[in-house]
Design brief:
four-stranded antiparallel β-sheet, eight-stranded mixed β-sheet, 28 strands, 13 helices, 2 domains, Rossmann fold, alpha+beta, 26% helix, 21% strand
Length: 568
């Protein structure tokens, strides 16, 4: 499977004046209250202030991402993006003055100043928010969360803060990794001469390794060479990749490369920087460095595996003068957990819009439970269950990657998540493609999904039986955790060619793919993803909610992206 990290957000505020209406929630039954959180326990709250001009950011993002725009490829600077999202001075003043009445001095945790953070005792938090912080057991994950059922904010600051988290939001923590097994077949040793063939090696029907992907998707074997290229890999949950495992991976599976490349490790929120290799990180690094060989690759180890760490990583990138050109992430949430807290999901999504506007291609896994997000098949056991999409895959400002399996033909991987958002409207760039699919779909699964929502995934790649080296042993893994770094690597290689030609990096790539690149994908027309007590979404001609536009053909994509104008 793949993806996680969790979130909890809400609105807060207090003053010696008029109070706004309480913000309250009734959590799902699987959240069970245990006891009040001890008053001397510490909590950390993050406050999001409203941006000055978020619509302007969205317009600017599409201007630099639409190949029909005269501004295509002219990505924004750090200062230009911050001007759109920085809070108004009156918001900063109202919030900091209010916190000062409780002797609280916030830390600014975003370069634009739109996010503040406070550390405080539970007793102070309860007073600040008129709350009752309580320990809740999440019976689905057997983890505990500190939350409250209600908060109250003062009216005079209500318009100056979007939310504070974690407070009244109840989102399950999905700590999941790719499903793995020890290979039952002997680890393949590819031939030293990797000449292109009409069909992939026979062993690719049993296990996927770099040569299989290179053959299937026409990916070049030659190393990338643009020094200003970059590829970032997100890491959470104390996941770690090692040079030893990567070296063995190359010695065994990339025999055409004389010396195994290396990768950098950067710690965010005190993330670990050493240790034994683990499943997700090993997969992510071996199939980025192993496919996008030569592209400078960095593993970002995030110590906080909650939503706080999730947004902290984005804020870390946005604070730099240069952002990574590709960001691959194999973690996520269930979108349904943001019901009633849609502003939180919007803020996350807007953070990815900021990265895209600055030139980052943000790539996310679609999930591994068919139509019902990440995990908990018991919630999707009966026919007629409303489908539950994944997040951030439903954010319209990033590229969501689904999964396929099989060689001839390549078909839907049943576990691959796909569907339609209940929060985000369908973006214009995919309107025609999704409308055609819905017309062909007819009454199938009628009433179980949002027909006007953002459709996902956007693209797909192989997701079954990837061979990896983990802590000195070989493993076979499956999930969109595998397809995501594969597609991210293809984007990084396409960037390499554009950069060498003096062109801008691709950045937010969806408008280009949907408008000019659909024919550069292998259309998947066989199979369905898993549904709830029935089949899910079928793969049909064109875009579909199981595999998106299909799987990539690098050679065809290269022609598309090199024809897209705008030099740097």
């Amino acid at each position: 499977m793949i993806c996680l990290v969790y979130v909890g957000f809400g609105l807060l505020w207090f003053s010696h004046g008029v109070y706004a209406a309480p913000r309250s929630v009734v959590p799902s039954p699987h959240f069970v209250p245990l006891h009040s959180t001890p008053s001397d326990s510490a909590v950390t709250l993050t406050l999001a202030l409203p941006p000055t001009n978020i619509e302007g950011l969205h317009t600017a993002l599409y201007d630099v991402s639409n190949p029909a725009s005269p501004k295509y490829g002219k990505h924004l600077s750090k200062a230009e993006v911050e001007a759109f999202v920085a809070p108004k001075p009156e918001s900063i003043k109202a919030v900091t003055n209010w916190l000062a009445t409780h002797d609280l001095k916030p830390e600014v945790v975003s370069s634009s100043g739109d996010m503040l953070r406070i550390n405080l005792p539970v007793s102070t938090a309860n007073s600040l928010l008129s709350a009752n912080f309580t320990e809740f057991l999440d019976k689905n994950t057997h983890t505990t969360l500190t939350r409250t059922l209600s908060i109250t904010i003062p009216a005079e600051v209500e318009d100056h803060v979007q939310f504070v988290f974690p407070t009244t939001q109840y989102v399950s923590t999905f700590i999941s990794a790719p499903i793995s097994s020890r290979p039952s077949v002997e680890v393949v040793q590819p031939p030293k001469s990797l000449s292109k063939r009409a069909t992939p090696p026979a062993m690719c029907s049993q296990q996927i390794y770099p040569e299989c992907l290179q053959d299937l998707y026409n990916i070049p074997t030659a190393a990338a060479s643009a020094s200003n290229n970059s590829l970032a890999v997100s890491g959470y949950l104390s996941e770690m990749a090692t040079e030893d495992d990567l070296s063995t991976f190359f010695t065994s599976l990339r025999t055409d490369v004389a010396t195994a490349p290396t990768f950098e490790i950067v710690s965010v929120d005190s993330g670990i920087t050493s240790g034994n290799g683990t499943l997700e990180a090993s997969l992510d690094i071996q199939y980025t460095v192993g496919i996008a060989t030569g592209v400078p690759t960095t593993f970002y180890s995030v110590g906080d595996s909650s939503a706080t760490g999730f947004i902290d990583l984005v804020n870390y990138f946005l604070a730099q003068d240069e952002v990574p050109l590709v960001l691959s992430t194999s973690y996520g949430f269930n979108e349904i957990g943001f019901t009633g807290s849609e502003d939180v999901a919007q803020t996350f999504c807007n953070a990815y819009a900021q990265l895209g506007a600055r030139g980052t291609s943000v790539i996310f896994c679609s999930g591994d439970n068919g139509v019902y997000s990440f995990g908990y098949n018991s919630q999707c056991s009966a026919a007629g269950t409303t489908f539950g999409p994944t997040f951030p895959s439903t954010c319209p400002f990033l590229t969501s990657v689904g999964g396929t399996q099989g060689i001839n033909p390549e078909v839907v991987a049943p576990f691959s998540s796909g569907g339609f958002s209940n929060i985000f409207a369908r973006p214009d760039y995919q309107s025609s493609a999704v409308s055609s699919y819905l017309a062909a779909l007819g009454s199938t699964n009628s009433g179980l999904y949002n027909t006007t929502g953002r459709g996902f995934p956007d693209v797909s790649a192989q997701a079954l039986n990837y061979l990896i080296r983990e802590s000195g042993a070989w493993e076979l893994v499956l999930g969109t955790s595998a397809s995501t770094p594969t597609f991210a690597s293809i984007v990084a290689l396409l960037n390499d060619e554009r950069l060498k030609a003096g062109k801008a990096p691709l950045g937010f790539v969806n408008p280009l793919l949907y408008s000019q690149g659909a024919n550069a994908f292998n259309d998947i027309t066989n199979g369905t993803n898993n549904g709830c007590g029935a089949e899910g979404f079928p793969a049909l001609a064109g875009w579909d909610a199981a595999t998106g536009l299909g799987t990539p053909d690098y050679s065809k994509l290269l022609s598309v992206v090199m024809a897209a104008a705008q030099s740097t």
